[in-house]
Amino acid sequence: MRRLTWFNVTSLTLGFAFLYLPMLILIVYSFNESKLVTVWAGFSTKWYGELLRDQAFIDAAKVTLQVAVVSSTVATVLGTMAALVLVRAGRFYGRTLFSGMIYAPLVMPEVITGLSLLLLFIGIGLDRGTITIILAHTTFSMAFVAVVVSSRLVTFDRSLEEAALDLGCSPFDAFRLVTLPIIAPAVISGWLLAFTLSLDDLVIASFTAGPSSTTLPIKIWSSIRLGVSPEINALSTIMIGIVAVGVIAASLITKRASLRQQAYERAAAAQT
Amino acid sequence: MGQTVFEPWNDPEAKPLIQFKNVTKRFGDFTAIDNQTFDIYEREFFALLGPSGCGKTTMMRMLAGFEKPTEGTILLGGQDIAPIPPNKRAVNMMFQSYALFPHLTVWDNIAFGLRRDGKSKEEIAARVEEMLKLTRLTQFARRKPHQISGGQRQRVALARSLAKAPKLLLLDEPMGALDAKLRTATQFELMDIQEKTGTTFVIVTHDQEEAMTVASRVAVMDNGRIIQADTPARIYENPNSVYVADFIGEVTIITGRAYKSGAGYEIHYAEGTAPFYAESETGFGDGETCHLALRPEKVAISAERPEARRNAVQGEIIDIAYLGNLSTYHVKLPTGQMIKAQTANTRRLSRRDFTWEDRVWLSWSDTAAVLLRE
């Protein structure tokens, strides 16, 4: 390993400070005794307690979790199916168009996605509420799942599926018993990605949320306008924690799977 | 009374296990298999041999059910298999990449096909143990595919495809990933297992030595056609075309015109030279173009002109390929033709009789060469 020079240490510190100082301040102040956000008055966890007694926040948390779990699960199923078709179906008329369209939501401004979904829901007369947020989140996060899963499928050896068919599996069984277990790490990290995206989202949720269904980001945003409270700091800290765990888990799963894959290929190369 | 020779293809009573009837397979404009009709018999070890892209893998994938013939029918035990999907066929395949399931142990890999058949636990266990024993893998049963060597993986793939006791086993370049030594050992192992299980094997390979070693019959393919399907000995000694002669082993091809003379033909190959003489199964008209195929090991090399042989020419040694046990001499005739002659190195190299630029005599018997029309 290379030794760290003073220059490297400085740039590393500056870079990470730039990235994480704001969050660090937020986390530190969530443990502040004082009601005033900018004045430090000693360590306390009372705002976390306050938060748990605040019914509005609890409700928002429930909606957020519900939306995140359902939308990421549906998005994973749809995204995996889309990836299978795009990677497997070979060349069909309009394939490039379809794969381009799958990636489009990744780069589409959220405001536009949100607005167009809002217009759609109004158009078909769907009352805004938890359902509409779930639909909206499914829409944009399935694109992410499709990208993650299809990048795994590209390197998947088709002869494994043929072998399963050859040994008596129906095509569905071949997928269930062979393909899915092998691509599972990609599917799981796709799910975690979709989950954290849904948890984070403010813009699309605020377009599609109804009066009875407020998600946590919307709740935080609206309370901020009345002034920053330590309660919000505590809530944000919890959300940072959840998102961090999700992202780290997703990357660890992917990393472990790719390491195992590499080890397998190395072993194959060395021993043949 | 001698042993009964295994030659069902010469027995008009024998019923073929597989029949290809006018089978054609096209991918778009490309014809992979061109109107082929042939039979494979039970207990045969049938090799499809040819360069890459000759259609041998397509042939195998049609048997496995991954491709359907565009025209014609394939019968397995008298039944048309076109409408039967791969998972319902009594045919199993060993894949070139082995296609072992990386998330399952060796044991579970072998049991995979048996479980799909809904057999009882005891039956499955007994069969898996039997397969492990047959392929000498018992001690590796609990390992995952990435924890065993390439040769062991190859045996797992074989055990897995044999576990369901298929009527027909397809092997797609089964030894492609093994090194030369292991390959030879595995070839004999494969023949042994084929004999023990009595399964019909169809092997796809581009390695002619492998095909010659393991197969009861070899089909040499080119451009979607089987050029010749026969026993290894017949393929080598009696090739039916220049393509087959050239594909299998080393050969010198001399083109000339045939003139009937006695029991054989005189082959005039260049102006002002004495013709070669060869006996032939195939008939030629006077003056018809023919190709004389001459195997290097049938050509003798000597310093003096041998008295007894009609076919003798003098030339100059241009190249010597030293293979350890054998040496191949490339000898150039005054007319420009090159003839390869091979000798066994029964003496140490330092005592070799001939060297570069030596003028030597090449000779061969009347029956050594094969006359080919095309």
What is the structure about, briefly put?
The complex is a heterodimer of chains A (272) and B (374). In chain A, 79% of the residues lie in helices and 0% in strands. Chain A is mainly alpha-helical.
- The CATH architecture of the largest domain in chain B: 3-Layer(aba) Sandwich
Q: Please, what is the oligomeric state?
A: heterodimer
Which percent range describes the beta-strand content of chain A?
under 5%
Which band does the percent of strand residues of chain B land in?
A: 25-35%
Q: What form of chain A results from the Cα inertia axes?
A: globular
Query: Count the strands of chain B?
Result: 20
Explain what this protein looks like in three dimensions.
The complex is a heterodimer of chains A (272) and B (374). Chain A has 272 residues and is mainly alpha-helical. Helix content of chain A is 79%, strand content 0%. In chain A, helix 3 runs parallel beside helix 6, helix 3 crosses helix 8 and helix 6 packs across helix 8. The two termini of chain A are 32 Å apart. Chain B folds into 2 domains: 236 residues, P-loop containing nucleotide triphosphate hydrolases (Rossmann fold, 3-Layer(aba) Sandwich), CATH 3.40.50.300; 123 residues, RNA polymerase II/Efflux pump adaptor protein, barrel-sandwich hybrid domain (OB fold (Dihydrolipoamide Acetyltransferase, E2P)), CATH 2.40.50.100. Helices cover 22% and strands 34% of the residues of chain B. In chain B, helix 3 crosses helix 4. Chain B has 374 residues and is of the alpha+beta class. A 6-stranded mixed β-sheet of chain B has the order 6-7-8-3-9-10, with helices on both faces. Chains A and B meet through helix 7, helix 8 and helix 11 of A and strand 6, helix 2 and helix 4 of B.
